[in-house]
Amino acid sequence: xxxxxxxxxxxxxxxxxxxxxxxxxxxxxxxxxxxxxxxxxxxxxxxxxxxxxxxxxxxxxxxxxxxxxxxxxxxxxxxxxxxxxxxxxxxxxxxxxxxxxxxxxxxxxxxxxxxxxxxxxxxxxxxxxxxxxxxxxxxxxxxxxxxxxxxxxxxxxxxxxxxxxxxxxxxxxxxxxxxxxxxxxxxxxxxxxxxxxxxxxxxxxxxxxxxxxxxxxxxxxxxxxxxxxxx
Length: 231
Ligand SMILES: O=C(O)[C@H](O)[C@@H](O)[C@H](O)[C@H](O)COP(=O)(O)O
Description:
By secondary structure, the protein is an alpha/beta fold. It has one domain: Rossmann fold. The protein is built from 8 helices and 10 strands. The protein has helices spanning about 10-35, 50-55, 80-90, 105-120, 145-150, 180, 195-205, 215-220; strands spanning about 5-10, 35-40, 65-70, 70, 95, 125-130, 155-160, 175, 185-190, 225-230. Strands 1-10-9-6-2-3-5 form a 7-stranded parallel sheet, with helices on both faces. The chain has a 3-stranded antiparallel sheet with strand order 4-8-7. Helix 1 (about 10-35) packs across helix 2. It is globular. The two termini are about 25 Å apart. Bound molecules: 6-phosphogluconic acid. 6-phosphogluconic acid binds near residues 46 and 137. 6-phosphogluconic acid binds near residues 42 and 138.
């Protein structure tokens, strides 16, 4: 059974405050312990309010490195780019925001380049903040031909082509692998809505046999996982 704790909130505001507070705590702990912190933040819409609150936290941002958990193969200034939002929000605070891709390479080469960039930073990650889609994908670990590679590759990042391409962002991507995510000291999952809750509950129950990528991913987690949810 996957060791996951659910934290439920009545409103999106309470959810955002709690997630921002948790992220701040984990970053502060890493800064206290080591003098720097290396974290991966999800793309998508859900984390926006919590990341806006986190950006107000008094942290030694100059010692924090942020990477996206995954990104779409688009230029960094494209509005579909996950790193763009992170850079706009956290670069002005002095944080180092590391893109996984500039969208200028074919998918396999983009994966290798992302992996090489991650080889150059402190590892393992202190914290991975994940979202999840209603199809049970997380980061860009999607159903499709690349799923098994994302779950088994020893690399930190790989290039993937979701099949089908998600309608809201129909791009090939680069993603942290299961190995990179499960190596992190702390994992937080941030979702909203009844449908995602049902998908995640089933994924956690079915674990390695899950039809959902997130169930397969978390099946081998050894750290406790915090799930933050509101309707
Ligand atoms: O770039 C991405 O697509 C993501 O990082 C992805 O894994 C995201 O977290 C989920 O798709 C949920 O997205 P929403 O929060 O927008 O529903």
